[in-house]
Design goal:
With about 260 residues, the protein is of the alpha+beta class. The chain folds into two domains: about 70 residues, no CATH class; about 180 residues, Glucose Oxidase, domain 1. The chain is about 25% helix and about 25% strand. A hairpin with a 5-residue loop joins strand 4 and strand 5.
Length: about 260
């Protein structure tokens, strides 16, 4: 139950006088319960819940006799940028396709381009000393992590060295499975952001301005760079990461962005 007394202050006249109106808790609860009910389908953008929600709120405004936003009524059209991370996949040197939320997880921002082709180099555990031994500029770097807690520091090191991407894997497969399930169940494949322009969306930058961030299960390491997980771990532990091969991969973004 709501214990606090809620108030809403709105300006109701032209001389600037504020009128404070007490909100009835029972009325407010009924309003929230209606909007959160099954029939409104989560009020999602890509289903009929969106239409039902706007109609319900507009009808409520009419009942309250609120002045419409414009002569067209209570609704205003605006634009959203839609990003779909489900359309991401990675092509390995041996022709394998690793689909997002299946054999890899993409956690970065959707880029303004459709394909990124890059060399991939092994960076061991991603320490300063290891990264100083290899050339990571304009490359994607494969990193072995003990846990996800150190990923931010590794990402910063790679950004400083002008790497364009980070793919990491773990000796234990459980972190990958939990990350994949998290993104499947909690993080929607589709995400929306308010567009700052009513013009057709165009690519804002030719260069890649940020670091692409992916995770793979250790079992896919051989497909991605040509050495098995155990051999890469052995090289990292023996501090011989320069012995790892350099391969070429591509990351594909199918219809990554559009304006709706």
């Amino acid at each position: 139950m709501m214990q606090a007394v809620l108030y809403l202050t709105v300006s109701l006249n032209s001389n600037g006088q504020d009128v404070t109106t007490k909100i009835d808790q029972t009325d407010l609860r009924a309003f929230i319960q209606t909007l959160s009910s099954i029939q409104f389908e989560g009020r999602s953008i890509d289903n009929t819940g969106q239409i039902k929600t706007q109609e319900f709120i507009a009808d409520r405004y009419k009942t309250l006799r609120l002045e419409p936003y414009s002569s067209g009524g209570y609704l205003e059209k605006f634009f959203l940028n839609l990003s779909d991370k489900g359309g991401v996949y990675l092509k390995t040197p041996n022709g394998q396709t690793l689909q997002n939320l299946d054999r890899m997880v993409f956690t970065g921002d959707i880029p303004p381009i459709n394909v990124i082709e890059s060399q991939i180099v092994f960076g061991g555990y991603g320490s300063e000393n290891e990264l100083n031994q290899i050339d990571v500029e304009n490359r994607i770097v494969l990193i072995l992590t003990e846990s996800s807690s150190g990923d931010y520091a590794i990402k910063k090191r790679l950004e400083e060295r002008k790497a364009i991407g980070l793919i990491y894997f773990n000796n234990d497969e459980r972190p990958f499975e939990s990350t994949k399930n998290l993104f499947k169940n909690v993080h929607y494949r589709k995400s929306y952001a308010i567009s700052d322009s009513k013009e057709n969306m165009t690519s804002q930058q030719e260069e890649i301005p940020f670091l692409y961030f992916m995770m793979i299960p250790g079992a896919e390491a051989k497909n991605v760079i040509g050495l098995s997980k155990s051999k890469l771990i052995n090289l990292a532990d023996r501090k011989r990461i320069k012995k790892a091969p350099v391969a070429k991969i591509s990351v594909h973004f199918e219809q990554a962005q559009k304006k709706i």
